[in-house]
Amino acid sequence: MPSLPPPVFLHSGFRTCSTWLWTRFRANSACLAYNEVFNDMLETIPLEGALIHTGSSWHSGHPPSDPYFLEFVPLVRPQGGIEGFTHDMPWERFFPEDGLDGSLSSGELRYLQSLIDLAHGQGKCPVLSATRSLGRLAAMKRHFGGTHLLLVRNPAHQWRSYIHQAEHGNPFFFLMVLTIFLQKRRDPFIARLFEIMADRTGNAVPTLLNLERHDNIFVVFLLTHVYLYMAMHDHADMVVDANALGADASLRRRTEETIAARTGLAVDLSDISLKVQSTQNTLKDPKGTWRLIDSLMEEAAQSPHVSPAGAAFGRRLAAAARQSLIA
Q: What is the spatial distance between Cα 77 and Cα 170, in angstroms, rounded to a whole number?
């Protein structure tokens, strides 16, 4: 009896070309590739929603594809929602109960295992993508093994995509920055960042989310993401930089070869297309903002969860963001 293929996990933040990367695995018929396994919609999605929801359903900028959640259809309950998925999974469980070194809950374990089992039952390799897993990548790797890819993008380009979405009436991504931020009790650095930003804004959430002045929410966005990238750097089996892929055909080929060597899966990365969706520089006090970021970056680098290699990686991402926003 042939051995079952180990799962592949695609971890990222929002607006990082994660949907594109997922479609590259989905295109391989040997895969059952699930999109955003912790997406909030999965709690209640009806069968018809799973069959029709695509990138054209909203101002996504995503490449054309079949509906996002087709692979979940066998698990849709009669009353709606995905079997085993619970309301706490997207955000309350973003960090494990005991922090970045903690374990997944029993509910998460059962749910993720059900996705893996469904793929294996079809004789396919399970591929699970997630934009809400940066705090639990290490726990997922510990429990499930397999291959874990960490996808990153120049944070300034990611940020400008958030702005573009807000300009089109969709502040969701700004709100999700705050949602992660409010899980502060599960990580000392996030708690420290919360304390500093509460003092800076008078502990006023409307001030933090003031869409006319992005300095404060940008600090939270950048430091939260870069800290998590630093902390998860050594747990990932591969780190994939979307900007580097877009700029270097030889790197794309090498990345394809590495994915194939690690997973046995052929993926074609040649059609990556990167677009910076907003060029507006919204920082009112760039010098002061970057002074604060620089100071807190050094605190983040001293976290026990961050290795020297992870710290160096985070500093490079922050430097790339700074250069892009200055240019």
A: 29
CA distances from 211 to 111, 200, 236, 242 (A): 37, 16, 34, 27
- Total domain count, the chain: 1
CATH number of the domain at 305, please. 3.40.50
User: Coil, strand or helix: which one is 297?
Assistant: helix
pLDDT in tens, 112-139: 999 999 999 999 999 999 999 999 999 9
- CA torsion sign for 167, 170, 174, 177 is negative
Position 322 in a domain: yes
Confidence band (pLDDT; 50, 70, 90) for 164?
A: confident
* In-domain check, residue 19: yes
Within 10 A of 22 (CB to CB), how many other CB atoms are there? Answer: 26
Return phi, psi of residue 34, to 5°: -90, 135
- Which helix or strand (DSSP H or E) is residue 210 part of? none
195 inside domain: yes
Count the neighbouring beta carbons within 10 Å of the beta carbon of residue 304. 10
Nearest alpha-carbon partner for 16 in 193, 148, 134, 137: 134
Domain that holds residue 148: 8-326
CB 223 within 8 Å of CB 297 = yes
Tokens of 4: 């079952």
> Which structure tokens are listed for 42?
């999965």
What is d(CA 56, CA 76) in angstroms, rounded to the nearest whole number? 22
pTM, to two decimals: 0.94
Query: Do 68 and 36 contact (CB within 8 A), yes or no?
Result: yes
Report the share of the chain in percent with pLDDT over 70. Answer: 90
Rounded Cα–Cα distance for residues 321 and 223 (Å): 11
- Collapsing DSSP to helix, strand or coil, 13 comes out as coil
In a domain, 2, yes or no: no
* pLDDT per position as a tens digit, 256-289: 999 999 999 999 999 998 877 665 666 888 899 9
